[in-house]
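User: Run a structure prediction on this.
Assistant: Running it now.
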Amino acid sequence: MTQVPQTFLDALAVRTWCGLALRALGRAREEIDAINVYPVADGDTGTNLYLTVESAATAVEAVFAGYETGSGEPALADAVRAMAHGALIGARGNSGTILAQLLRGMAQVLADDGDASHIDGRGLRLALRRAADSARQAVARPVEGTVLTVASAAADAAEGADGDCRTVARAAYEGARTALAATPAQLAVLERAGVVDAGGRGLVAVLGALVEAFTGEAVREPVRELPVRDVPARELPARESLLREIPQPQGTVPVPVPVPVSVPASAPDGDAPAHARVTAPERCADAAAPGGPAFEVIYLLEADDAAVARLRARLDALGDSLVVVGGDGLWNVHVHVDDAGAAVEAGVEAGRPYRIRITHFGLGDVRTGRERPPRERAQRAVVAVVPGEGLAALYAESGATTVLARPGEPPASGELVQAVRRAHAREVVLLPNDADLRHTAAAAAEQARTEGIRVALIPTRSAVQGIAALAVHEPGRRFDEDVVQMTSAAGATRYAEVVVAERQSWTTAGVCQAGDVLGLIDGDVAVIGTDVTATARTVLDRMLQAGGELVTLVVGDEAPENAAARLEARVRESYLAVDTVVYRGGRQGALLLIGVE
Protein backbone atom coordinates (compact mmCIF):
# COMPACT_ATOMS: atom_id res chain seq x y z
CA MET A 1 0.00 0.00 0.00
CA THR A 2 1.50 3.35 -1.08
CA GLN A 3 1.05 6.27 1.29
CA VAL A 4 0.82 9.84 0.01
CA PRO A 5 1.65 12.44 2.67
CA GLN A 6 -1.43 14.49 3.56
CA THR A 7 -2.48 16.98 6.20
CA PHE A 8 -6.07 15.83 6.80
CA LEU A 9 -7.94 12.64 7.67
CA ASP A 10 -10.37 11.28 5.09
CA ALA A 11 -11.81 7.86 4.27
CA LEU A 12 -8.74 6.79 2.29
CA ALA A 13 -6.47 7.77 5.19
CA VAL A 14 -8.59 5.65 7.54
CA ARG A 15 -8.21 2.71 5.18
CA THR A 16 -4.44 3.27 4.97
CA TRP A 17 -4.19 3.59 8.75
CA CYS A 18 -5.98 0.28 9.32
CA GLY A 19 -3.71 -1.53 6.89
CA LEU A 20 -0.55 -0.05 8.40
CA ALA A 21 -1.73 -0.74 11.96
CA LEU A 22 -2.38 -4.36 11.07
CA ARG A 23 1.09 -4.66 9.57
CA ALA A 24 2.71 -2.97 12.58
CA LEU A 25 0.94 -5.30 15.02
CA GLY A 26 1.93 -8.26 12.86
CA ARG A 27 5.58 -7.27 13.29
CA ALA A 28 5.25 -6.58 17.02
CA ARG A 29 2.86 -9.39 17.92
CA GLU A 30 5.47 -11.80 19.30
CA GLU A 31 7.14 -9.09 21.36
CA ILE A 32 3.81 -7.93 22.81
CA ASP A 33 2.71 -11.48 23.60
CA ALA A 34 5.99 -12.11 25.39
CA ILE A 35 5.73 -9.07 27.71
CA ASN A 36 2.06 -9.70 28.57
CA VAL A 37 1.89 -10.02 32.38
CA TYR A 38 -1.13 -7.87 33.28
CA PRO A 39 -4.00 -8.37 34.03
CA VAL A 40 -3.27 -12.05 33.30
CA ALA A 41 0.07 -13.46 32.19
CA ASP A 42 -1.42 -15.48 29.36
CA GLY A 43 0.84 -14.28 26.56
CA ASP A 44 -1.81 -13.26 24.03
CA THR A 45 -2.17 -9.46 24.12
CA GLY A 46 -0.34 -8.99 20.82
CA THR A 47 -2.43 -11.68 19.18
CA ASN A 48 -5.67 -10.21 20.52
CA LEU A 49 -4.80 -6.71 19.32
CA TYR A 50 -3.86 -8.08 15.90
CA LEU A 51 -7.18 -9.92 15.55
CA THR A 52 -9.12 -6.85 16.69
CA VAL A 53 -7.46 -4.59 14.13
CA GLU A 54 -7.78 -7.29 11.46
CA SER A 55 -11.56 -7.23 11.99
CA ALA A 56 -11.59 -3.41 11.81
CA ALA A 57 -9.53 -3.39 8.61
CA THR A 58 -11.77 -6.03 7.02
CA ALA A 59 -14.86 -3.93 7.75
CA VAL A 60 -13.29 -0.84 6.19
CA GLU A 61 -12.28 -2.83 3.10
CA ALA A 62 -15.87 -4.04 2.77
CA VAL A 63 -17.10 -0.43 2.69
CA PHE A 64 -14.63 0.46 -0.07
CA ALA A 65 -15.56 -2.70 -1.99
CA GLY A 66 -19.15 -1.44 -2.10
CA TYR A 67 -18.12 1.40 -4.38
CA GLU A 68 -17.74 0.60 -8.05
CA THR A 69 -14.63 1.70 -9.94
CA GLY A 70 -14.93 5.33 -10.92
CA SER A 71 -17.85 6.11 -8.60
CA GLY A 72 -15.81 7.79 -5.89
CA GLU A 73 -15.07 6.59 -2.39
CA PRO A 74 -17.00 6.34 0.87
CA ALA A 75 -17.46 9.31 3.16
CA LEU A 76 -15.23 9.69 6.19
CA ALA A 77 -18.20 8.88 8.43
CA ASP A 78 -18.82 5.58 6.62
CA ALA A 79 -15.18 4.53 6.94
CA VAL A 80 -14.76 5.35 10.63
CA ARG A 81 -18.08 3.78 11.58
CA ALA A 82 -17.07 0.60 9.76
CA MET A 83 -13.70 0.65 11.49
CA ALA A 84 -15.31 1.02 14.92
CA HIS A 85 -17.98 -1.62 14.23
CA GLY A 86 -15.44 -4.09 12.87
CA ALA A 87 -13.26 -3.65 15.94
CA LEU A 88 -16.27 -4.04 18.23
CA ILE A 89 -17.47 -7.34 16.78
CA GLY A 90 -13.93 -8.71 16.44
CA ALA A 91 -12.48 -7.50 19.75
CA ARG A 92 -10.41 -10.12 21.58
CA GLY A 93 -9.21 -10.08 25.15
CA ASN A 94 -8.94 -7.22 27.60
CA SER A 95 -6.67 -4.98 25.50
CA GLY A 96 -8.50 -5.71 22.25
CA THR A 97 -11.80 -4.74 23.85
CA ILE A 98 -10.32 -1.47 25.13
CA LEU A 99 -8.82 -0.75 21.70
CA ALA A 100 -12.28 -1.26 20.17
CA GLN A 101 -13.65 1.40 22.51
CA LEU A 102 -10.78 3.76 21.66
CA LEU A 103 -11.68 3.45 17.97
CA ARG A 104 -15.36 3.87 18.75
CA GLY A 105 -14.64 7.03 20.72
CA MET A 106 -12.69 8.45 17.78
CA ALA A 107 -15.49 7.50 15.39
CA GLN A 108 -18.07 9.37 17.48
CA VAL A 109 -16.18 12.60 16.80
CA LEU A 110 -15.00 11.91 13.26
CA ALA A 111 -18.48 10.90 12.08
CA ASP A 112 -20.26 13.73 13.88
CA ASP A 113 -20.66 15.66 10.63
CA GLY A 114 -21.81 12.90 8.34
CA ASP A 115 -21.33 15.01 5.20
CA ALA A 116 -17.76 16.06 5.92
CA SER A 117 -15.21 14.58 3.51
CA HIS A 118 -12.31 15.07 5.92
CA ILE A 119 -11.23 16.56 9.25
CA ASP A 120 -8.26 18.69 10.21
CA GLY A 121 -5.86 18.70 13.15
CA ARG A 122 -8.44 20.15 15.52
CA GLY A 123 -10.87 17.34 14.74
CA LEU A 124 -8.18 14.72 15.30
CA ARG A 125 -7.30 16.27 18.68
CA LEU A 126 -10.95 16.06 19.76
CA ALA A 127 -11.20 12.48 18.50
CA LEU A 128 -8.16 11.33 20.48
CA ARG A 129 -9.51 13.00 23.62
CA ARG A 130 -12.92 11.33 23.23
CA ALA A 131 -11.21 8.00 22.60
CA ALA A 132 -9.17 8.12 25.81
CA ASP A 133 -12.09 9.30 27.95
CA SER A 134 -14.60 6.76 26.61
CA ALA A 135 -12.14 3.87 27.03
CA ARG A 136 -11.53 4.82 30.66
CA GLN A 137 -15.30 4.97 31.27
CA ALA A 138 -15.75 1.50 29.76
CA VAL A 139 -13.42 -0.14 32.30
CA ALA A 140 -15.10 -0.92 35.60
CA ARG A 141 -11.96 -0.35 37.70
CA PRO A 142 -9.33 1.64 35.77
CA VAL A 143 -5.68 0.96 36.68
CA GLU A 144 -2.80 3.33 35.95
CA GLY A 145 0.23 1.99 34.13
CA THR A 146 -1.94 0.29 31.52
CA VAL A 147 -3.15 1.06 28.01
CA LEU A 148 -5.59 3.56 29.57
CA THR A 149 -2.67 5.63 30.86
CA VAL A 150 -0.94 5.52 27.49
CA ALA A 151 -4.16 6.58 25.69
CA SER A 152 -4.67 9.51 28.07
CA ALA A 153 -1.07 10.63 27.59
CA ALA A 154 -1.51 10.50 23.81
CA ALA A 155 -4.64 12.66 24.05
CA ASP A 156 -2.90 15.13 26.38
CA ALA A 157 0.06 15.47 24.02
CA ALA A 158 -2.27 15.90 21.03
CA GLU A 159 -4.14 18.71 22.77
CA GLY A 160 -0.87 20.59 23.14
CA ALA A 161 -0.04 20.31 19.44
CA ASP A 162 -1.08 23.20 17.20
CA GLY A 163 -1.08 22.19 13.57
CA ASP A 164 -2.42 19.80 10.96
CA CYS A 165 -3.15 16.09 11.35
CA ARG A 166 0.48 15.16 10.78
CA THR A 167 1.59 17.34 13.69
CA VAL A 168 -1.19 16.11 15.99
CA ALA A 169 -0.61 12.43 15.17
CA ARG A 170 3.13 12.70 15.77
CA ALA A 171 2.58 14.49 19.09
CA ALA A 172 0.13 11.79 20.19
CA TYR A 173 2.60 9.07 19.23
CA GLU A 174 5.49 10.66 21.12
CA GLY A 175 3.28 11.27 24.15
CA ALA A 176 2.17 7.63 24.14
CA ARG A 177 5.73 6.44 23.68
CA THR A 178 6.92 8.43 26.70
CA ALA A 179 4.01 7.21 28.82
CA LEU A 180 4.69 3.61 27.83
CA ALA A 181 8.27 3.83 29.10
CA ALA A 182 6.94 5.05 32.47
CA THR A 183 4.40 2.25 32.99
CA PRO A 184 6.71 0.00 35.09
CA ALA A 185 6.96 2.76 37.70
CA GLN A 186 3.16 2.87 37.93
CA LEU A 187 2.37 -0.84 38.13
CA ALA A 188 4.40 -3.10 40.41
CA VAL A 189 3.71 -6.24 38.41
CA LEU A 190 5.42 -4.65 35.38
CA GLU A 191 8.41 -3.48 37.41
CA ARG A 192 8.99 -6.94 38.88
CA ALA A 193 8.84 -8.54 35.44
CA GLY A 194 11.04 -5.84 33.90
CA VAL A 195 8.63 -4.99 31.09
CA VAL A 196 6.37 -2.20 29.88
CA ASP A 197 2.62 -2.66 29.57
CA ALA A 198 1.73 -4.95 26.67
CA GLY A 199 -1.55 -3.22 25.80
CA GLY A 200 0.14 0.16 25.87
CA ARG A 201 2.89 -1.18 23.60
CA GLY A 202 0.23 -2.24 21.12
CA LEU A 203 -1.45 1.19 21.20
CA VAL A 204 1.91 2.84 20.49
CA ALA A 205 2.20 0.63 17.39
CA VAL A 206 -1.30 1.67 16.26
CA LEU A 207 -0.50 5.38 16.77
CA GLY A 208 2.80 4.93 14.94
CA ALA A 209 0.80 3.59 12.00
CA LEU A 210 -1.40 6.71 12.14
CA VAL A 211 1.71 8.89 11.81
CA GLU A 212 2.87 6.81 8.86
CA ALA A 213 -0.56 7.11 7.20
CA PHE A 214 -0.17 10.91 7.19
CA THR A 215 3.55 11.23 6.47
CA GLY A 216 4.35 8.14 4.43
CA GLU A 217 7.34 7.56 6.72
CA ALA A 218 7.69 4.75 9.23
CA VAL A 219 8.24 5.86 12.84
CA ARG A 220 11.05 4.61 15.00
CA GLU A 221 10.22 1.50 16.97
CA PRO A 222 9.55 2.05 20.69
CA VAL A 223 12.56 1.14 22.79
CA ARG A 224 12.16 -0.63 26.08
CA GLU A 225 13.28 1.96 28.59
CA LEU A 226 13.37 -0.71 31.29
CA PRO A 227 15.61 -3.68 30.41
CA VAL A 228 14.02 -7.10 30.53
CA ARG A 229 15.31 -9.11 33.45
CA ASP A 230 17.61 -11.99 32.63
CA VAL A 231 15.28 -14.71 33.85
CA PRO A 232 14.83 -18.26 32.60
CA ALA A 233 12.36 -18.39 29.76
CA ARG A 234 9.12 -20.00 30.79
CA GLU A 235 6.11 -21.06 28.87
CA LEU A 236 3.30 -18.67 29.55
CA PRO A 237 0.20 -20.52 30.70
CA ALA A 238 -1.49 -22.37 27.91
CA ARG A 239 -5.21 -21.94 27.53
CA GLU A 240 -7.51 -24.88 27.53
CA SER A 241 -9.90 -25.23 24.62
CA LEU A 242 -13.46 -25.89 25.69
CA LEU A 243 -16.44 -26.89 23.59
CA ARG A 244 -19.66 -25.87 25.19
CA GLU A 245 -23.31 -25.80 24.33
CA ILE A 246 -23.99 -22.16 25.14
CA PRO A 247 -27.54 -21.33 26.26
CA GLN A 248 -29.08 -19.24 23.49
CA PRO A 249 -31.81 -16.65 23.89
CA GLN A 250 -35.34 -17.71 23.13
CA GLY A 251 -36.07 -17.84 19.43
CA THR A 252 -32.60 -18.89 18.32
CA VAL A 253 -31.26 -22.29 17.40
CA PRO A 254 -28.69 -23.66 19.90
CA VAL A 255 -25.43 -24.49 18.19
CA PRO A 256 -22.15 -25.72 19.64
CA VAL A 257 -19.80 -22.79 20.17
CA PRO A 258 -16.09 -23.63 19.98
CA VAL A 259 -14.19 -21.60 22.53
CA PRO A 260 -10.80 -20.54 21.21
CA VAL A 261 -7.44 -21.20 22.70
CA SER A 262 -4.90 -18.42 22.67
CA VAL A 263 -2.94 -18.73 19.43
CA PRO A 264 -0.64 -16.43 17.51
CA ALA A 265 -2.24 -14.64 14.59
CA SER A 266 -0.33 -14.68 11.37
CA ALA A 267 2.01 -11.79 10.80
CA PRO A 268 1.97 -10.97 7.08
CA ASP A 269 5.34 -9.27 7.19
CA GLY A 270 7.11 -12.13 8.88
CA ASP A 271 8.43 -12.62 12.36
CA ALA A 272 9.26 -9.76 14.66
CA PRO A 273 12.66 -8.21 13.94
CA ALA A 274 15.58 -9.36 16.04
CA HIS A 275 15.64 -6.20 18.15
CA ALA A 276 11.99 -6.77 19.09
CA ARG A 277 12.40 -10.30 20.42
CA VAL A 278 12.32 -10.57 24.19
CA THR A 279 12.56 -13.28 26.79
CA ALA A 280 9.17 -14.29 28.14
CA PRO A 281 8.90 -12.81 31.64
CA GLU A 282 8.13 -14.85 34.69
CA ARG A 283 4.52 -15.14 35.57
CA CYS A 284 3.87 -12.63 38.31
CA ALA A 285 2.32 -13.48 41.63
CA ASP A 286 -0.56 -11.04 41.31
CA ALA A 287 -1.33 -11.80 37.70
CA ALA A 288 -3.60 -14.81 37.39
CA ALA A 289 -2.33 -16.03 40.74
CA PRO A 290 -3.78 -19.21 42.25
CA GLY A 291 -7.20 -18.37 43.60
CA GLY A 292 -7.80 -15.70 40.93
CA PRO A 293 -10.53 -15.94 38.28
CA ALA A 294 -10.30 -19.14 36.27
CA PHE A 295 -12.14 -18.09 33.10
CA GLU A 296 -12.20 -15.29 30.56
CA VAL A 297 -15.71 -14.73 29.18
CA ILE A 298 -16.34 -12.59 26.09
CA TYR A 299 -19.53 -12.13 24.11
CA LEU A 300 -21.35 -9.71 21.87
CA LEU A 301 -24.62 -8.49 23.36
CA GLU A 302 -27.70 -6.87 21.88
CA ALA A 303 -29.27 -4.89 24.73
CA ASP A 304 -30.46 -1.41 25.69
CA ASP A 305 -28.48 0.99 27.86
CA ALA A 306 -30.49 0.35 31.04
CA ALA A 307 -30.00 -3.42 30.81
CA VAL A 308 -26.27 -2.96 30.23
CA ALA A 309 -25.97 -0.74 33.30
CA ARG A 310 -27.49 -3.53 35.40
CA LEU A 311 -25.22 -6.07 33.70
CA ARG A 312 -22.11 -4.05 34.57
CA ALA A 313 -23.03 -4.06 38.24
CA ARG A 314 -23.73 -7.80 38.25
CA LEU A 315 -20.52 -8.77 36.41
CA ASP A 316 -18.45 -6.44 38.56
CA ALA A 317 -19.61 -8.42 41.59
CA LEU A 318 -18.83 -11.73 39.87
CA GLY A 319 -15.22 -11.09 38.80
CA ASP A 320 -12.64 -8.58 37.63
CA SER A 321 -11.06 -7.10 34.48
CA LEU A 322 -14.57 -6.04 33.45
CA VAL A 323 -14.75 -4.06 30.22
CA VAL A 324 -18.06 -3.32 28.48
CA VAL A 325 -17.74 -1.34 25.25
CA GLY A 326 -20.12 -0.33 22.49
CA GLY A 327 -23.47 1.40 22.31
CA ASP A 328 -26.50 1.90 20.09
CA GLY A 329 -27.80 -1.52 21.09
CA LEU A 330 -24.62 -3.55 20.41
CA TRP A 331 -21.97 -4.22 23.08
CA ASN A 332 -18.84 -6.28 23.56
CA VAL A 333 -18.57 -7.71 27.07
CA HIS A 334 -15.30 -8.95 28.61
CA VAL A 335 -14.82 -10.24 32.17
CA HIS A 336 -12.64 -12.65 34.18
CA VAL A 337 -14.69 -14.87 36.49
CA ASP A 338 -14.71 -18.19 38.32
CA ASP A 339 -18.31 -18.94 37.31
CA ALA A 340 -18.43 -18.67 33.52
CA GLY A 341 -22.02 -19.90 33.41
CA ALA A 342 -23.18 -17.09 35.68
CA ALA A 343 -21.48 -14.51 33.44
CA VAL A 344 -23.28 -15.88 30.38
CA GLU A 345 -26.61 -16.09 32.24
CA ALA A 346 -26.23 -12.44 33.20
CA GLY A 347 -25.90 -11.63 29.51
CA VAL A 348 -29.00 -13.66 28.65
CA GLU A 349 -30.99 -11.71 31.24
CA ALA A 350 -29.70 -8.41 29.86
CA GLY A 351 -30.42 -9.11 26.18
CA ARG A 352 -29.23 -11.43 23.41
CA PRO A 353 -25.63 -12.63 23.81
CA TYR A 354 -23.92 -14.38 20.91
CA ARG A 355 -20.42 -15.27 19.64
CA ILE A 356 -19.72 -16.39 23.18
CA ARG A 357 -16.10 -17.34 23.96
CA ILE A 358 -15.07 -18.93 27.25
CA THR A 359 -11.38 -19.55 27.85
CA HIS A 360 -9.85 -21.34 30.80
CA PHE A 361 -6.67 -19.86 32.24
CA GLY A 362 -4.03 -22.31 33.40
CA LEU A 363 -2.88 -25.81 32.70
CA GLY A 364 -5.32 -28.63 33.37
CA ASP A 365 -8.02 -29.01 35.96
CA VAL A 366 -8.40 -25.87 38.05
CA ARG A 367 -9.99 -27.73 40.92
CA THR A 368 -7.34 -30.42 41.35
CA GLY A 369 -4.32 -28.71 39.83
CA ARG A 370 -3.49 -31.91 37.94
CA GLU A 371 -2.14 -31.54 34.44
CA ARG A 372 -3.83 -33.51 31.72
CA PRO A 373 -1.58 -35.92 29.84
CA PRO A 374 -0.68 -34.52 26.42
CA ARG A 375 -2.84 -35.86 23.63
CA GLU A 376 -0.91 -37.68 20.90
CA ARG A 377 -0.95 -35.91 17.55
CA ALA A 378 -2.78 -37.49 14.64
CA GLN A 379 -0.77 -37.99 11.50
CA ARG A 380 -3.10 -36.03 9.22
CA ALA A 381 -6.19 -33.84 9.42
CA VAL A 382 -8.35 -31.63 7.22
CA VAL A 383 -9.33 -28.11 8.29
CA ALA A 384 -12.13 -26.46 6.31
CA VAL A 385 -14.02 -23.17 6.33
CA VAL A 386 -17.75 -23.78 5.89
CA PRO A 387 -20.56 -21.24 5.35
CA GLY A 388 -23.35 -22.84 7.41
CA GLU A 389 -24.15 -25.11 10.33
CA GLY A 390 -25.45 -27.88 8.08
CA LEU A 391 -22.23 -28.12 6.11
CA ALA A 392 -20.24 -27.86 9.33
CA ALA A 393 -21.96 -31.02 10.54
CA LEU A 394 -21.37 -32.75 7.18
CA TYR A 395 -17.67 -31.91 7.16
CA ALA A 396 -17.31 -32.90 10.81
CA GLU A 397 -18.90 -36.29 10.10
CA SER A 398 -16.21 -36.79 7.47
CA GLY A 399 -13.53 -36.11 10.08
CA ALA A 400 -12.70 -32.49 9.21
CA THR A 401 -12.08 -29.72 11.73
CA THR A 402 -14.37 -26.86 10.74
CA VAL A 403 -14.37 -23.08 11.01
CA LEU A 404 -17.84 -21.57 10.62
CA ALA A 405 -18.01 -18.48 8.38
CA ARG A 406 -21.32 -16.79 9.01
CA PRO A 407 -22.68 -14.36 6.36
CA GLY A 408 -20.74 -11.11 6.57
CA GLU A 409 -18.31 -12.54 9.15
CA PRO A 410 -15.37 -14.18 7.36
CA PRO A 411 -12.88 -15.85 9.71
CA ALA A 412 -9.63 -14.08 10.51
CA SER A 413 -6.25 -15.67 9.91
CA GLY A 414 -5.83 -16.25 13.65
CA GLU A 415 -9.02 -18.30 13.73
CA LEU A 416 -7.67 -20.53 10.96
CA VAL A 417 -4.38 -21.01 12.82
CA GLN A 418 -6.41 -21.87 15.89
CA ALA A 419 -8.36 -24.50 13.94
CA VAL A 420 -5.12 -26.01 12.61
CA ARG A 421 -3.88 -26.30 16.16
CA ARG A 422 -7.19 -27.75 17.30
CA ALA A 423 -6.86 -30.47 14.64
CA HIS A 424 -3.73 -31.58 16.55
CA ALA A 425 -2.05 -33.27 13.61
CA ARG A 426 1.42 -33.38 12.13
CA GLU A 427 0.04 -32.81 8.62
CA VAL A 428 -2.94 -30.59 7.77
CA VAL A 429 -4.82 -29.99 4.54
CA LEU A 430 -6.46 -26.54 4.60
CA LEU A 431 -9.62 -25.88 2.55
CA PRO A 432 -10.63 -22.16 2.57
CA ASN A 433 -13.70 -22.81 0.36
CA ASP A 434 -13.87 -19.12 -0.60
CA ALA A 435 -11.84 -17.20 -3.17
CA ASP A 436 -11.79 -14.14 -0.89
CA LEU A 437 -10.10 -16.16 1.86
CA ARG A 438 -7.11 -17.13 -0.27
CA HIS A 439 -4.68 -14.65 1.28
CA THR A 440 -6.04 -15.17 4.80
CA ALA A 441 -5.63 -18.93 4.48
CA ALA A 442 -2.13 -18.55 3.02
CA ALA A 443 -1.06 -16.40 5.97
CA ALA A 444 -2.54 -18.92 8.41
CA ALA A 445 -0.75 -21.80 6.68
CA GLU A 446 2.56 -19.94 6.84
CA GLN A 447 2.12 -19.26 10.55
CA ALA A 448 1.25 -22.90 11.26
CA ARG A 449 4.36 -24.04 9.39
CA THR A 450 6.53 -21.96 11.71
CA GLU A 451 5.09 -24.06 14.55
CA GLY A 452 6.29 -27.30 12.98
CA ILE A 453 3.03 -28.33 11.30
CA ARG A 454 3.17 -29.45 7.69
CA VAL A 455 0.33 -27.59 5.94
CA ALA A 456 -0.91 -27.88 2.37
CA LEU A 457 -3.35 -25.21 1.15
CA ILE A 458 -5.78 -26.33 -1.53
CA PRO A 459 -7.31 -23.12 -2.97
CA THR A 460 -10.94 -24.27 -2.99
CA ARG A 461 -13.28 -21.43 -3.90
CA SER A 462 -16.56 -22.98 -2.79
CA ALA A 463 -17.77 -25.42 -0.17
CA VAL A 464 -18.87 -27.81 -2.94
CA GLN A 465 -15.27 -28.00 -4.16
CA GLY A 466 -14.30 -28.77 -0.57
CA ILE A 467 -16.85 -31.61 -0.49
CA ALA A 468 -15.32 -33.08 -3.64
CA ALA A 469 -11.82 -32.83 -2.16
CA LEU A 470 -12.90 -34.40 1.12
CA ALA A 471 -14.57 -37.27 -0.72
CA VAL A 472 -11.23 -38.51 -2.10
CA HIS A 473 -9.20 -37.78 1.03
CA GLU A 474 -7.32 -40.85 2.30
CA PRO A 475 -5.22 -40.34 5.46
CA GLY A 476 -3.29 -43.55 4.76
CA ARG A 477 -1.78 -42.22 1.52
CA ARG A 478 1.47 -40.33 1.30
CA PHE A 479 0.81 -36.67 2.13
CA ASP A 480 1.84 -35.27 -1.24
CA GLU A 481 -0.20 -37.88 -3.10
CA ASP A 482 -3.26 -37.19 -0.97
CA VAL A 483 -2.96 -33.45 -1.60
CA VAL A 484 -2.64 -34.01 -5.36
CA GLN A 485 -5.76 -36.21 -5.44
CA MET A 486 -7.78 -33.73 -3.34
CA THR A 487 -6.61 -30.80 -5.48
CA SER A 488 -7.53 -32.65 -8.64
CA ALA A 489 -11.03 -33.45 -7.35
CA ALA A 490 -11.62 -29.84 -6.31
CA GLY A 491 -10.33 -28.49 -9.62
CA ALA A 492 -12.62 -30.82 -11.57
CA THR A 493 -15.68 -29.45 -9.78
CA ARG A 494 -17.41 -26.43 -11.29
CA TYR A 495 -19.27 -24.40 -8.71
CA ALA A 496 -22.20 -22.01 -8.68
CA GLU A 497 -24.40 -20.21 -6.22
CA VAL A 498 -27.82 -18.58 -6.28
CA VAL A 499 -28.16 -15.39 -4.27
CA VAL A 500 -30.40 -12.33 -4.01
CA ALA A 501 -28.99 -8.97 -5.14
CA GLU A 502 -28.76 -6.43 -2.32
CA ARG A 503 -28.58 -3.35 -4.58
CA GLN A 504 -28.56 -2.22 -8.18
CA SER A 505 -25.30 -3.11 -9.86
CA TRP A 506 -23.55 -3.77 -13.16
CA THR A 507 -22.74 -7.44 -13.68
CA THR A 508 -21.29 -9.61 -16.43
CA ALA A 509 -24.88 -10.57 -17.31
CA GLY A 510 -26.21 -7.00 -17.36
CA VAL A 511 -27.70 -4.61 -14.83
CA CYS A 512 -29.42 -6.17 -11.82
CA GLN A 513 -31.81 -4.51 -9.40
CA ALA A 514 -32.08 -4.98 -5.64
CA GLY A 515 -34.12 -8.13 -5.03
CA ASP A 516 -33.20 -9.84 -8.31
CA VAL A 517 -32.11 -13.48 -8.14
CA LEU A 518 -28.55 -13.94 -9.39
CA GLY A 519 -26.96 -17.14 -10.60
CA LEU A 520 -23.17 -17.07 -10.36
CA ILE A 521 -21.04 -19.68 -12.13
CA ASP A 522 -17.39 -19.94 -11.09
CA GLY A 523 -17.71 -16.57 -9.34
CA ASP A 524 -19.24 -14.54 -12.22
CA VAL A 525 -22.89 -13.56 -12.61
CA ALA A 526 -24.29 -15.67 -15.46
CA VAL A 527 -28.05 -15.40 -14.95
CA ILE A 528 -30.35 -12.65 -13.66
CA GLY A 529 -33.87 -13.77 -12.82
CA THR A 530 -36.85 -13.25 -10.55
CA ASP A 531 -37.57 -16.84 -9.44
CA VAL A 532 -35.10 -18.85 -7.37
CA THR A 533 -35.87 -22.28 -8.79
CA ALA A 534 -36.06 -21.09 -12.41
CA THR A 535 -32.76 -19.25 -12.08
CA ALA A 536 -31.11 -22.27 -10.47
CA ARG A 537 -32.43 -24.50 -13.26
CA THR A 538 -30.92 -22.24 -15.91
CA VAL A 539 -27.59 -22.24 -14.06
CA LEU A 540 -27.66 -26.01 -13.76
CA ASP A 541 -28.42 -26.48 -17.47
CA ARG A 542 -25.52 -24.24 -18.47
CA MET A 543 -23.12 -26.11 -16.21
CA LEU A 544 -24.22 -29.54 -17.46
CA GLN A 545 -23.84 -28.53 -21.11
CA ALA A 546 -20.13 -29.17 -20.64
CA GLY A 547 -20.87 -32.61 -19.17
CA GLY A 548 -20.83 -33.98 -15.67
CA GLU A 549 -21.34 -37.10 -13.58
CA LEU A 550 -22.48 -35.79 -10.22
CA VAL A 551 -24.49 -32.74 -9.13
CA THR A 552 -24.18 -31.55 -5.54
CA LEU A 553 -26.92 -29.26 -4.21
CA VAL A 554 -26.48 -27.46 -0.88
CA VAL A 555 -29.76 -25.84 0.15
CA GLY A 556 -29.83 -22.83 2.46
CA ASP A 557 -32.54 -22.12 5.01
CA GLU A 558 -34.04 -19.30 2.93
CA ALA A 559 -34.38 -21.31 -0.29
CA PRO A 560 -37.91 -22.35 -1.39
CA GLU A 561 -38.93 -25.66 0.16
CA ASN A 562 -39.44 -27.46 -3.15
CA ALA A 563 -36.38 -26.03 -4.94
CA ALA A 564 -34.12 -29.04 -4.32
CA ALA A 565 -36.80 -31.56 -5.32
CA ARG A 566 -37.55 -29.73 -8.57
CA LEU A 567 -33.87 -29.42 -9.47
CA GLU A 568 -33.29 -33.07 -8.65
CA ALA A 569 -36.19 -34.00 -10.93
CA ARG A 570 -34.76 -31.81 -13.69
CA VAL A 571 -31.44 -33.65 -13.57
CA ARG A 572 -33.14 -37.06 -13.44
CA GLU A 573 -35.34 -36.30 -16.46
CA SER A 574 -32.87 -34.46 -18.68
CA TYR A 575 -29.46 -35.89 -17.77
CA LEU A 576 -29.87 -39.64 -17.40
CA ALA A 577 -26.25 -40.47 -16.58
CA VAL A 578 -25.90 -37.80 -13.87
CA ASP A 579 -26.46 -38.48 -10.17
CA THR A 580 -27.62 -35.88 -7.65
CA VAL A 581 -26.89 -35.52 -3.94
CA VAL A 582 -28.61 -32.93 -1.71
CA TYR A 583 -27.37 -31.46 1.57
CA ARG A 584 -28.93 -28.96 3.97
CA GLY A 585 -26.56 -26.04 4.48
CA GLY A 586 -28.44 -24.09 7.15
CA ARG A 587 -27.84 -20.34 7.40
CA GLN A 588 -25.19 -20.15 4.70
CA GLY A 589 -25.80 -16.79 3.02
CA ALA A 590 -26.45 -18.20 -0.47
CA LEU A 591 -29.88 -19.68 -1.23
CA LEU A 592 -28.26 -22.57 -3.11
CA LEU A 593 -24.77 -23.87 -3.74
CA ILE A 594 -24.32 -26.06 -6.80
CA GLY A 595 -21.40 -28.27 -7.71
CA VAL A 596 -20.93 -30.29 -10.91
CA GLU A 597 -18.20 -32.95 -11.11
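The two ends are 39 Å apart (CA to CA).
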